[in-house]
Write a structure and sequence with these properties.
The protein is 12% helix and 41% strand. The chain is mostly beta strands. The strands form eight sheets. Strands 7, 29, 30, 31, 32, 33, 34 and 35 form an eight-stranded antiparallel sheet that branches. A hairpin with a 2-residue loop joins strand 17 and strand 18.
Length: 553
């Protein structure tokens, strides 16, 4: 594969040298950093492939390339502004390559003197190694467009200054190969130089995953976020009419603009040194049409949840230090806030209440009737058939899915339980878990992952649930870590609940997932938060990095 890429790379660069005259009157100086590679496989050679391909393509377009023998993080330590000045650069180009399964995502960040704090992020996708060089070619065109700040025409439309290039008989521009259900003849066209879009897969293509291992399950993956995200939410939190992605780690809230093929950090909020954020949601708590950010939080062993409002570029605490762990649940056609008190003690019998935000705090407005064995996290609404009354779906901490039926008296009784296990969590806080006798039963306190439920087009209920496999926990001195993860879909049929689909395994861990309706998609998608697993056992003691991925439901 390395030899194949190297051989093709030479012809690929020659192709661009012939067809791409200079677009700059005076060549701009661009510093090219070392591209980092994130993958569970040994593909470090992609660093050299990315640097040589992008560098050669930019040189062919008239840019002067300065080889920076440092990664993006190393350049930041030295100072971006200082590097621009020292090397007399107009821009610094840095980035990363993410390989999960067969799909390869290319990310570039363009730093100029005017965008040191918020670089422009560009992304392109290849569905396999065979399509990588084509994706790098298209990616270099995106970079040129950004550097020149003008629209770059298609190759056939570029003026050649009355010179006819030598005919190219056998070399053609490779493009990312995307599998289709039924191969059809395709006319070869000159690729348009436009912003890269995420891979688009139909449901039929996704169903063929098992018979066609080259087909990835996710349709898009974000650039790497250099922190260990614990929760994800989606809502219009700044009132601009567009929904944002909200992520949390243990002490921060991050708000991102989300376009078709990238996320861009808009604003972040830092909690106190003792905060340990557990979950995040968006919900309009005061009826003004703008959603607030609700953060389930533990501080010094006690629940201390908060609600944040983003006004312009400033966060305002609408509620704080709430003694409840919280979540937002879609129940009987509306979103409601649920809460459960938490004092660090292991609970076998749960007491969940409905809450509202009033006068700067979360106010108890009544008990949420659910069996006492059901905890706050893992709880979802469900209907086996659309005509049924609202049922409760619960993923137990031990991994079993259960469905509870209402008995007509605001009570619920168990109707179904899975024989297989699902879930598996590494979402923990460093807090000794004690029993009713104050005896320590564990070094960490874990919070359950959530299933997703909805009613399918046939009127029957469907469930998507992560399956995080083979994790360590309650071992002093080690981090909880998941080696393999995937999603499983279950669907209620006349004969009962059946597994209908499982995604391909990924080296990592699904920390959170939500169902979203994106403005450019006709059908809802699954937005998943994935920790990328580092190589080696010892690296599990560090901090995981995070990507956001989209899946078809």
């Amino acid at each position: 594969m390395k030899a194949k890429i190297g051989k093709t790379l030479g012809a690929f660069v020659l192709f661009f040298i012939f067809l791409s005259p200079s677009v700059n009157a005076a060549p701009s100086r661009v510093g090219l950093a070392i591209y980092e590679v994130a993958s569970g496989e040994n593909v470090d050679y992609l660093k050299k492939v990315a640097k040589e391909s992008l560098g050669a393509s930019l040189q062919a377009r008239g840019y002067s390339i300065v080889d920076l023998s440092f990664t993006e993080d190393e350049i930041k330590k030295r100072g971006l502004a200082a590097t621009l000045k020292k090397e007399n650069l107009d821009a610094i180009l840095a980035g990363s390559i993410v390989k999960v399964g067969n799909t390869i995502q290319i990310f570039s960040r363009v730093y100029t003197s005017a965008s040191l704090s918020q670089p422009v992020i560009l992304t392109s996708t290849a569905s396999s190694m065979d399509g990588l060089l084509g994706a790098l070619g298209n990616h270099s065109q995106l970079i040129v467009t950004e550097l020149s700040k003008t629209s770059v025409p298609a190759l056939a439309a570029i003026p050649v200054e009355n010179k006819t290039p030598p005919p190219v008989k056998t070399v053609s521009l490779p493009t990312p190969a995307i599998s289709t259900p039924e191969p059809k003849p395709v006319k070869v066209k000159t690729p348009k130089l436009k912003e890269a879009e995420p891979l688009a897969h139909s449901k039929e293509q996704i169903r063929e995953t098992f018979s066609n291992p080259a087909s990835p399950d996710y349709t898009w993956v974000s650039n790497i976020q250099p922190f260990e995200a614990r929760g994800v939410a989606y809502g219009d939190v700044n009132g601009d009419g567009q929904k944002e992605i909200v992520l949390i780690d243990l002490k921060h809230v991050y708000v991102y603009e989300f376009t078709r093929n990238q996320i861009r950090l808009l604003k972040d909020y830092e909690g106190s040194s003792n905060d340990q954020f557990v979950r995040v949601y968006t919900h309009d708590v005061n009826g003004d049409g703008k959603e607030e950010i609700l953060v389930s939080n533990v501080n010094r062993g006690q629940a201390a949840s908060l609600a944040l409002e983003l006004n312009g570029d400033q966060f305002k605490e609408v509620a704080q230090n709430s003694p409840w762990l919280i979540k937002v649940l879609r129940w009987k056609g509306e979103n409601i806030i649920l809460g459960e008190t938490f004092t660090g003690m292991k609970v076998d019998y749960h007491d969940i209440h409905q809450l509202k935000v009033e006068n700067g705090r979360f106010k108890d407005v009544g008990k949420f009737e659910a069996p006492s064995e059901i905890g706050l996290y893992g709880l979802q609404a469900f209907k086996q058939v659309s005509s049924d009354p609202e049922q409760i779906l619960y993923l137990t901490p031990s991994g079993y899915l259960k469905i509870f039926d209402p008995d007509g008296k605001e009570k619920f009784k168990k109707k179904w339980s899975s024989s297989d296990k699902y879930g598996g969590t590494s979402n923990f806080i460093r807090l000794n878990q004690t029993n009713m006798f104050n005896e320590v039963e564990g070094q960490f306190t874990y919070f359950n992952v959530e299933p997703i439920s909805w009613t399918g087009s046939d009127g029957h209920g469907s469930i998507i649930v992560p399956k995080n496999d083979d994790f360590l926990k309650n071992i002093i001195g080690t981090r909880p870590v998941v080696k393999n993860t995937w999603f499983t879909k279950l669907h209620w049929e006349d004969i009962g609940m059946r597994e209908t689909f499982s995604t391909r395994k990924i080296d990592g861990y699904f920390a959170d997932n939500i169902k979203v309706q994106l403005p450019w998609e006709s059908q809802p998608k699954l937005l998943a938060l994935l920790w990328v697993r580092d190589k080696g056992f010892m690296n599990a003691m560090g901090t995981f990095k995070t990507v956001v991925a989209l899946y078809d439901l």
